[in-house]
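Standup notes
- DV: blocked on the single-chain target, sequence here:
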Amino acid sequence: MENGKTENGDTQPPPQWKDKVVELLYWRDVKTSGVVFGAGLSLLLSLTLCSIVSVSSYITLVLLSVTICFRIYKGILQAIQKSDEGHPFKLYLDQDVGLSEETVHKYSDCALARFNTTVIELRRLFLVEDLVDSLKFAVLMWILTYVGALFNGLTLLILGLVGMFSFPIIYEKYKVQIDHYVGMANKQVKDIIAT
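- DV (later): unblocked, structure below
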């Protein structure tokens, strides 16, 4: 694997990105994980009550209110103290927030490779290249019809978010017991299949 490419030519995000996600999901920094989890859960729960347009408008208004109030507060402090500190967000205003052409190409190539792989696999499944795989796919879709009848997409996203932030830490704490019971279940499934 050279320059972020796998053997089949797919590009992968840098390892630092994966490490940050693992640290986030395993709650290595409790404050950061709590903020991300709380913000994500709040966003998803608010989307169950309001439309995405309303939620994005409210979030934008809150952010604008905070930054405007902070700017006015700093302006008043500068006037009272007769200091010349300048704009309170100057550090952020001077930063380059644009995406480089290289970064866009890198991630668009990765997305294109995954899209092409998905299209090829779907073509293979729908045109019944392998009957067993197509039947497995049909059974999966049939099961998903029942899941769809029980949950909507937003509920599944909420459950997924809660699961992402809780299962890794639970597994880390109770690894031995979980591995033992999963091993027992696998053994029973193999015995049933064998009979």
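- Follow-up: Residues 32 and 38 are 10 Å apart (CA to CA).
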